[in-house]
Amino acid sequence: MARRSRPSFMKRQKEMARQQRQQDKTARRLEKKSKETETETVAEGVEDPEIAGIRPGPQPPPNWMD
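^ that's the sequence the OP posted. Answer follows.
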């Protein structure tokens, strides 16, 4: 009977790198998902200070133009 040889060192390193990339990808997905939910909750509760007071349609000229 033929014996099976052990996996080579390079093969093991390659598999470990693949697993690490998968873990990194999962972490990025979770981080992105948490940021999306964070921005959604901010958008629902508080008005953005940069656009506060702006209404649809033509805007009055800024004060510095007078």
